[in-house]
TrEMBL record:
All residue ranges annotated as the Histidine kinase domain in the record: 275-478
Gene source species: Anaeromyxobacter oryzae
HAMP domain segment(s): 206-258
Membrane-spanning segments: 183-205
Assigned EC number: 2.7.13.3
Lineage of the organism: Bacteria, Pseudomonadati, Myxococcota, Myxococcia, Myxococcales
Protein name listed in UniProt: histidine kinase
Amino acid sequence: MFDRIGTAKRLALGLGALVFLLVVASAAAIVGSARVHRGIAETMRQEEGVRLSLELASAVRDQYAHQAHTIIIGDRSHLGFYDQARATVLGLTARLRQRAGGEEERRLVDAIEAESGTLDRIFKESIVPSVVRGEHENVKEEHGRAQLVVTRIQDLTQQLVSRFEARIEAARAEAERIERTTLWLLVGLLVAAPVLAAAVSLAIARSIVVPVAQLSAGAARIAAGDLDARIEVSGAPELVSLARQWNAMTAALRDHQEKLVRSEKLAGIGRLAAGVAHEINNPLGVILGYAKLLRKRADGVLAEDLAVVEEEALRAKEIVDGLLDLSRPLPPPGTDPVDLRVLADDVVARLRDARLLDGVAVSVDGVARAPGHAEKLRQVLVNLVLNAAEAAGAGGRVAVRVGGRDGAAEVAVEDSGPGIPDAARAKLFEPFFTTKPRGTGLGLAVSRAIARAHGGELAAGDAPGGGARFALTLPAVATAAAANGEAA
């Protein structure tokens, strides 16, 4: 799986992993610090609760002390001080209720407040009236009740302080635990970062150095002339792709060399064939002339034999003329515009007059003009229409469509025949290749050469309704005129 990842992605993954570790370390430090700060804040809040609890215990003692002073003095002179102490107790219980972090602490605060209220009722409803009336026994009894209430308040206050101190201890222990955990996590991440960096660097180095060495060795073999050498590389996808392209380039170079050799051979054969064709063209003409002359004078079996000689001589002359057309340099296409619709109509009319389209429905439609050599273009159309008529057969249809497309003129010849066999598509325009029983295999090759000499192309394909479609594409008049203007 790692070998499928490109070098750039590997570097990105390695850097990303390091960045991820640093981010995790930073996040761990931030989170740990935040949790420690929350623990400190909680500790301070609980310490504030302890302080308020101690102040509450002191305020309750002040409340009780002012009750005692009232009993000792025997008048109402300390009631103002008592009310201040009572107000202090109520304020402290309200603040403690806000600081209470749990249900138990709030229960204790409520109990302290309730006991303080009981102490206040005992004082105001029993002790003060008894002091004023001088009922010493009743004062003594109620003072004892008040003392018990104060003792209960002190116990409740101590329980509240213990609760707050327990929470302080827990918060401190949690803060210490978080500090230790964060420290170990940071140490682990900082140790893992260089280890990961070293591992990624080693993996990337191994995935690049070895393939580069293999590429270098393969290039040396190819430079030495071994075009059959193949470079096998595994590792970084870029280097694997480079090795494949190198192998494809070597194969293309080998094929190009083979094609050059074949082209030289074919060129030699073509020159030889052109020379031979030129030399035998005149004897063939003589043979054809004498065969026609003798056939007119002969009769019976001899006339039939002479007809065969004449037919075969004509076929041989067609082959010779095709060879000469293929090897002879084509004349310049010319710049005079040719009306392709008029040319197509004329070709169909002449072939129909020669009874070469009997039984085949041929239609021509559309208009287009293109600069070129009219007679050479006529030769192409004659060949295409004849081929289409032979493919369509008796009762078939041939459509010649003239038009323009993408700034070019096009003449498409479509037939209703069986279409082009898949095995023949690649060799369709090669000289001497034919699917006809008596074809020379030169017509389409010559036609494509004429099309290309005009700056166009001849292509074969499938007709929309079935059958074959041959499209002659030529530069349109406007395009050609613009080109000539630029050249000028």
